[in-house]
Amino acid sequence: YAVLHFAAYTAVDKAESEKDLCKAINTDATATIARLCETYSTKLLVISTDFIFDGRKTTTYLSSDKPNPLSVYGKTKYEGEQMALQNCKHCLVIRTSWLYSEYGNNFVKTMLRLGQERENLGVVFDQIGSPTYAADLASAIFAAINAPIWHAGVYHYTNEGVCSWYDFTHEIFTRAQLLLDAESANKIASCKLRSILSSEYQYQTPRPHYSVLNKSKIKQTFGISIPHWTDALQVCLEKLLSD
After folding, report:
1. Helix crossing, 72-87 with 29-39: angle to 10°?
2. Which of these, 154, 157, 160, lies nearest to 139 by C-alpha position?
3. Do 57 and 192 meet the contact criterion of CB atoms below 8 Å apart?
4. Contact criterion met (CB below 8 Å) for 84 and 43
5. Is position 78 annotated as part of the catalytic site?
């Protein structure tokens, strides 16, 4: 058996004014769960984030690279990782980034909505990372928990490939136009997509400018292949827009 700990405080900007609540959820609760898992000899899998890095590297981040979070959110998630690993010897951490799916609130669904509501849309182009389709992350998690041997430690998982938020949005718009009804497709086609700097967007806290995660360790350890982010996006959009 394994406990899958996915809960987190993820409102990055709001966390700056709700530090105690963010720490209680991301750090303290994770520590408590890890201690309980250790007490009952239970394996633990924790999901973490690329926000534990400062984004100053120009090559992909290894799981062994030293974190340097820029935000309260990133700091509490990293501290949560540490608590989990220190308190449960059978703890496995998977860091991911730019997560989306056909469910809940996420970047893909927000861009689809804004593309049909606005005539102009500015999206940052100086933040570089890798989108992650939740269904693909789930497959990797199943591979990890069903492996013949439990491989504790820290791993990275995203879809393959690299892009900016602007590139991601452009691809969403391009592919969605082929799947939407004529009226909705025309609205997205007429929305003028603009690339903007992060400094032009009203962030309350800095984001890592480069947070591409190196996935060699998880691929080699669990023998998994990872879809490219554009292929994963197509799968998600087909499910999301099939109605």
Report:
1. 10
2. 157
3. no
4. no
5. no
pLDDT tens, residue by residue, 215-224: 999 999 999 9
Question: Of these residues, 9, 73, 157, 166, which one is catalytic?
Answer: 73
Q: Which pLDDT value is given to residue 35?
A: 98
- Reported as half-sphere exposure (CB side, CA atoms, 13 A), residue 48 has a value of 34
DSSP 144-187: HHTSSS---EEEE---BS-EEHHHHHHHHHHHHTTTS-HHHHHH
Q: Which of 92, 79, 81, 85 is nearest to 43 (CA)?
A: 92
Computed on alpha carbons and rounded to an integer, the radius of gyration of the chain in Å comes to 19
pLDDT for 138: 98
Tokens 């690339």 belong to 195
Residues in the chain: 243
